[in-house]
């Protein structure tokens, strides 16, 4: 093999760079180990079962987004037959007004940064 | 004066948001459709305003009597979180006033009626029947709804600004930078935009959906703006057009604008 | 093949290093734009496309112009172009890459560009343009790689490549035609809405592109042992002469139509270009420089004695290239927006950031050209060690 030394050094540098985020978080020492979103609402029933919402709320939101903006359909009928307005800032956030403890809790853990709040105005949180 | 005006806008804006001055096309009072702060807004959604072809008529004469009035502009820009920039380079506008010679560029006539020459007609998105902006959009982020409204999907727009090049009326604005810090009074009922997308008037689709007239129409207290269904022979807008002389901007381009200007 | 580009003398590495620095600086400025938004450019509500889209348009022309060496060589078996055809194809690849990059830096939401393919819109010329350019890039990469590889092996290129090369000829015409349609189909912009726009684009492409190719060959002659001989250069010079004549002819036809008909909405744009409109003379000096350069270039190219002299030909090519760059890379796009559809004149001039990003993108193209020219010439043993 030609240039074996150079290739190995190159590979090591490459691996070091690729795994950088892991080293960086480890060195910082504050890797979150679990996420525990806090649900504070008087409402008993969500628009869909909790398990579905945990996994797929983003799909539901995308569906709502397209229905409202593109089809002009604004009312969602849940499996229970109950009707809801398809609205992030109303229906969703009226219950889950604690964005930092609810949305951000998991999003930070998963390292995702959804662009919802670039445009939709987040509810003012009551300082506790 | 500015403070007075701002105060007025706030009051008027809040009032309109709360649906206190709302009337639907049939002239019925719909002020109780949406209660302020109500959790369940479904009742409003169950009586939306619908049409086969929405159109707007602007009575230039009535409007000009209030030459310096900006109530409709202020109401629109307030409820839609339209930012106000100091630098004209960043400007975003949904409704604005333009000197007649610019608004009706093709109506070149030095000796036009003096009051018309000095008028500043209100300009909107024309919600064309054959909208060139829709043909050019490479992602279908702007399209024509069945009721004639030319809509925008700010989630999908890639910011190529082809629609701005294609629009013959200069009706579209682009977010050259983050608009949030330049919105004086954020309305949480309507999203702001992010930098890098195009925006424009949508005939208040979000208000029609809950049975309210467009914010500008509601804000105008001299009745210079009339909004309704052009396919309905009994609608106010249709009657008005039947009985008055009206013009449209650049009719020669074949785009069929749905904003009509009444010349009285 | 590419490993040949990894060995070179200090001048070669100096040039590569310089290009990397320019690209890096461009990238830093782009990050600023990415963070702030396109407001960091000189663009505004009235002039919504500027330097970036103009460079895109200009470079689509350079890419298409490869056909001026490909067509004579492969279709007419014009042997003299044997040594430079591959150079034209590599230039086309670099140009298309630059086109894509200019589109990218011009987007308000660049990360959403996949939406063009996720929600295909056959109504939009931009959809077709991305297909045309993407296809052209693929064709030229396939052709170049195979041609270079067979040169390395000392065998003729594989037979299946011939139909692909022939397909690349109409495809080259199509990329610039579709790019012209992008503009000429807009009723809102009378300056662009002219049936002659596509032919005009092709004429300016087929003069500016080969002029650039001649200059690149002269540079290669100076810095390497590469020498294609006199004939292909002279033939390219002739192509430049004809195409530039057509280009000037087309421009004069536009000017005649606008000025004689006197329709303000056509005429105002030309006034803005050549005499200024409502006191705005931003482009006037540029356009006159472009016109004077065009006259100089044609004078030199028309005189056989002058054209046959390589030094004079080189100078003429510089004038052709600059003249067309000003006309297409500045005048063409900006003027479509001035005056705006309401008859108002708004000033646009690129900002420093915008200019640095533009230079950075050009450096990407120069890097691609350098690396692939180096590899090709090394395989042929035409690079001095």
Characterise the protein shown here.
- The complex is a heterotrimer of chains A (128), B (264) and C (385).
- With 128 residues, chain A is mainly alpha-helical.
- Chain A contains six helices and two strands, in the order H-H-H-E-E-H-H-H.
- Chain A has a two-stranded antiparallel ribbon.
- The model of chain A has no long low-confidence stretch (mean pLDDT 86).
- Chain B has eleven helices and ten strands.
- In chain B, the strands form four sheets. Chain B has a four-stranded mixed sheet. A two-stranded antiparallel sheet of chain B has the order 2-3. Chain B has a two-stranded antiparallel ribbon with strand order 4-5.
- In chain B, a hairpin with a 5-residue loop joins strand 4 (142-144) and strand 5.
- With 385 residues, chain C is an all-alpha fold.
- Chain C has a single domain (2-379), classed as Up-down Bundle (Formate dehydrogenase/DMSO reductase fold), CATH 1.20.1630.10.
- Chain C is 72% helix and 0% strand.
- Chain C contains 14 helices and no strands.
- Chain C has helices spanning 10-36, 51-64, 67-75, 85-106, 115-118, 125-153, 161-184, 197-223, 230-261, 264-274, 284-302, 304-308, 310-336, 352-379.
- In chain C, 49% of the residues are buried.
- The mean pLDDT of chain C is 93.
- Classes of the chains: A mainly alpha (128), B alpha+beta (264), C mainly alpha (385).
- Chains in contact: A-B, B-C.
- Chains B and C meet through helix 5, helix 7, helix 8 and strand 6 of B and helix 5 and helix 6 of C.
CATH architecture field of chain C = Up-down Bundle
Question: Under the CATH scheme, which class of chain C?
Answer: Mainly Alpha
How far is the N terminus from the C terminus of chain B? 31 Å
- Largest chain interface and its two residue counts? B-C, 49 and 43 residues
Question: What would the average pLDDT of chain C be, to the nearest integer?
Answer: 93
Provide the CATH superfamily of chain C.
Formate dehydrogenase/DMSO reductase domain
How far apart the termini of chain C lie comes to: 17 Å
Helix content of chain C: over 70%
The structure class of chain C reads mainly alpha
Shape of chain B: globular
Whole-number total of structural domains of chain C:
1
What is the average of the pLDDT values of chain B?
Answer: 86
Classify the secondary structure makeup of chain B into a structural class: alpha+beta
Question: Which runs of chain C of at least 5 residues are low in confidence (pLDDT < 50)?
Answer: none
């Amino acid at each position: 093999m030609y240039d074996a030394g150079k290739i190995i050094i190159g590979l090591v540098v490459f691996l070091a760079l690729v795994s950088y985020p892991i080293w960086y978080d480890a060195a910082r020492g504050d890797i979150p180990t679990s996420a525990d979103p806090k649900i504070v609402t008087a409402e008993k029933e969500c628009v869909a079962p909790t398990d579905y919402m945990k996994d797929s709320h983003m799909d539901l939101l995308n569906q709502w987004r397209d229905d409202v903006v593109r089809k002009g359909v604004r009312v969602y009928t849940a499996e229970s037959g109950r009707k809801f307005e398809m609205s992030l800032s109303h229906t969703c956030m009226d219950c889950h007004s604690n964005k930092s403890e609810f949305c951000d809790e998991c999003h930070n853990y998963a390292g995702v940064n959804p662009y919802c709040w670039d445009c939709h105005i987040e509810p003012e949180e009551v300082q506790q | 004066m500015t403070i007075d005006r701002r105060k007025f806008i706030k009051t008027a804006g809040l009032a309109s948001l709360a649906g206190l001055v709302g009337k639907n096309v049939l002239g019925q009072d719909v002020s109780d459709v949406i209660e302020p702060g109500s959790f369940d807004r479904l009742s409003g959604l169950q009586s939306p305003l619908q049409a086969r072809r929405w159109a707007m008529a602007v009575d230039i004469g009535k409007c000009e009597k209030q030459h310096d009035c900006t109530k409709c502009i202020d109401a629109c820009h307030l409820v839609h979180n339209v930012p106000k920039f100091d630098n004209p380079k960043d400007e975003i506008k949904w409704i604005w006033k333009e000197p007649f010679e610019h608004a009706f560029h093709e109506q070149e006539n030095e000796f036009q009626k003096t009051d018309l020459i000095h008028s500043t007609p209100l300009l909107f998105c024309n919600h064309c029947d054959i909208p060139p902006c829709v043909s050019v959009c490479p992602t279908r982020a702007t399209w024509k709804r069945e009721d004639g409204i030319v809509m925008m999907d700010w989630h999908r727009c890639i910011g190529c600004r082809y629609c701005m090049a294609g629009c013959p009326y200069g009706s579209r604005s682009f977010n050259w930078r983050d608009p949030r810090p330049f919105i004086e009074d954020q309305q949480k009922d309507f999203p702001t935009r992010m930098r890098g997308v195009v925006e424009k008037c949508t005939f208040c689709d979000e208000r029609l959906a809950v049975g309210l007239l467009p914010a500008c129409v509601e804000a105008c207290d001299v009745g210079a703006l009339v909004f309704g269904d052009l396919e309905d022979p009994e609608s106010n807008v249709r009657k008005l057009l039947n009985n008055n002389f009206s013009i449209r901007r650049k009719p020669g381009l074949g785009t069929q604008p749905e904003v009509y200007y009444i010349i009285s | 093949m590419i490993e040949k580009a990894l060995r070179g003398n200090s001048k070669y590495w100096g040039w590569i290093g310089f290009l990397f620095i320019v690209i890096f600086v461009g990238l830093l400025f782009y990050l600023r734009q990415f963070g702030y938004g396109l407001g960091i450019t000189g663009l505004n509500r009235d002039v919504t496309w500027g330097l970036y889209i103009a460079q895109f348009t200009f470079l689509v022309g350079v890419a298409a112009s490869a056909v001026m060496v490909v067509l004579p060589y492969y279709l007419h078996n014009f042997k003299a172009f044997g040594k430079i055809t591959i150079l034209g194809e590599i230039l086309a690849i670099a140009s298309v890459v630059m086109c894509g990059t200019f589109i990218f830096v011009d987007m308000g939401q660049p990360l959403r560009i996949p939406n063009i393919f996720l929600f295909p819109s056959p109504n939009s010329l931009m959809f077709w343009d991305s297909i045309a350019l993407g296809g052209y890039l693929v064709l030229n990469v396939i052709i170049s790689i195979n041609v270079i590889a067979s040169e390395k092996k000392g065998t003729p290129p594989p037979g299946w490549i011939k139909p692909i090369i022939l397909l690349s000829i109409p495809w080259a015409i199509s990329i610039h035609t579709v790019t012209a349609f992008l503009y000429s189909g807009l009723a809102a912009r009378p300056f662009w809405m002219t049936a002659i726009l596509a032919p005009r684009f092709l004429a300016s492409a087929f003069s500016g592109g080969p002029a650039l190719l001649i200059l690149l060959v002269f540079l290669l002659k100076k810095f390497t042992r590469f020498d294609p001989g006199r004939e292909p250069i002279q033939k390219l010079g002739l192509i430049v002469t004809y195409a530039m004549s057509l280009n000037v002819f087309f421009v004069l036809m536009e000017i005649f139509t606008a000025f004689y008909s006197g329709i303000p909405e056509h005429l105002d744009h030309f006034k803005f270009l050549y005499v200024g409109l409502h006191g705005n003379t931003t482009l006037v000096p540029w356009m006159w420089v472009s016109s004077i350069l065009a006259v100089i270039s044609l004078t030199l190219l028309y005189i056989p004695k002058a054209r046959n002299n390589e030094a004079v030909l080189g100078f003429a090519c510089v004038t052709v290239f600059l003249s067309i760059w000003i006309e297409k890379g500045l005048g063409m796009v900006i003027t479509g927006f001035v005056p705006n559809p309401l008859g108002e004149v708004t000033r646009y001039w690129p900002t420093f950031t915008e200019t640095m990003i533009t230079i950075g993108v050009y450096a990407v193209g120069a890097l691609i050209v350098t690396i692939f020219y180096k590899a090709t010439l090394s395989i042929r043993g035409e690079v001095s060690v």
